[in-house]
TrEMBL record:
Bias (Basic and acidic residues) ranges: 47-68
Gene source species: Arcicella aurantiaca
Keywords of the record: Repeat, TPR repeat
InterPro entries registered for this protein in UniProt: CellSynth/LPSAsmb/PSIAsmb, TPR-like_helical_dom_sf, TPR_rpt
TPR repeats: 203-236
Region Disordered, annotated ranges: 33-70
PANTHER family: LIPOPOLYSACCHARIDE ASSEMBLY PROTEIN B, TPR REPEAT-CONTAINING PROTEIN PA4667
Name of the protein this chain belongs to: Tetratricopeptide repeat protein
């Protein structure tokens, strides 16, 4: 089910970060440390489960396609407005640029302008927006050096958020996931455990742990995570899709079919529906 796995991970990225390119050490450490207290991490059960310049930023994009001429014209016009503005007057044109870059999936460029807004108004809300966009750029980076750079920027911004508000669990969760792609992945896993200890039903952290379990082929553990999410939020179609995938990998075909058919019925996301259909086609 490699195709389905790729689609599922792609769908999950916006929620949990660049897991599809996680270094192998993350998988191993997640097995040994995060899940070790549970008996399911023994060898037998693991095998069973496997069943820049301020006015003219030089932003390097890592994308397979360049902006079209029409798109570039839109951006150039918005940059012109931004450049002519000053002080707080830059916030609105910066927001317009952010919205357009997000529309074009240029998250690194969007993050640059979000960071510029933070320089003018370093509120928690603005910091979270900048951190979220750097996190998206980290998630979708196609080059390892870009992943590292965007991860560093995301952590820098999220740390500022946590300095203001140590109880911002989303900042801590996303920051944790950027650490899982570094040379110190356990720092991120420890942070996720701290989030769960503080709020056991916190969805972003549970989802992150579920995806990490998928990456380490611990499908039984992942099932527990996604079921916990759905117990509190039955409408979470991403959790349902991942649950269906894990059940299929465990050869629990009937349960997987029921879950995936619900995804097809309830989800409004074409990618989720396509992934669900692909998994279902492998079950019959």
């Amino acid at each position: 089910m490699q195709k389905s796995f790729i689609v599922i991970i792609g769908i999950a990225l916006a929620t949990v970060g660049g897991l599809y390119s996680l270094p192998k050490v993350v998988v191993n450490d997640e097995k040994k440390t995060l899940e070790q207290p549970n008996k399911e991490t023994t060898t037998g059960s693991a095998n069973r489960d496997k069943g820049v310049k301020e006015e003219t930023p030089q932003v390097t994009e890592s994308h397979t396609e360049s902006l079209s001429k029409e798109q570039q014209t839109v951006i150039d016009n918005l940059k012109g407005v931004y450049t002519k503005a000053s002080g707080k007057g830059k916030i609105k044109p910066a927001e317009d640029l952010i919205n357009q870059f997000v529309k074009y999936t240029r998250y690194d460029s969007a993050a640059y302008y979000a960071d510029e807004i933070v320089k003018i108004d370093p509120s928690e809300n603005n910091l979270m927006k900048a951190g979220g966009l750097y996190y998206e750029a980290f998630t979708y980076a196609l080059q390892s050096d870009k992943t590292v750079k965007m991860g560093e920027k995301a952590r820098e911004v999220y740390q500022k958020v946590l300095d203001k508000n140590p109880n911002n669990l989303l900042a801590k969760t996303n920051m944790a996931m950027t650490y899982t792609a570094t040379q110190t992945p356990m720092q991120g896993i420890t942070m996720l455990r701290e989030v769960i200890a503080k709020e056991p039903d916190y969805e972003p952290a549970l989802f992150s742990l579920g995806i990490l379990s998928i990456r380490s082929n611990q499908f039984g553990k992942a099932v527990d995570r996604f079921k916990q999410i759905l117990k509190n939020n039955p409408a979470n179609s991403k959790a349902a899709l991942n649950l269906g995938y894990c059940l299929a990998e465990l050869d629990r075909k009937e349960e997987a079919t029921q879950i995936l058919e619900k995804v097809l019925k309830n989800s409004q996301d074409p990618q989720e529906k396509a992934a669900a259909n692909d998994i279902l086609s492998k079950l019959h």
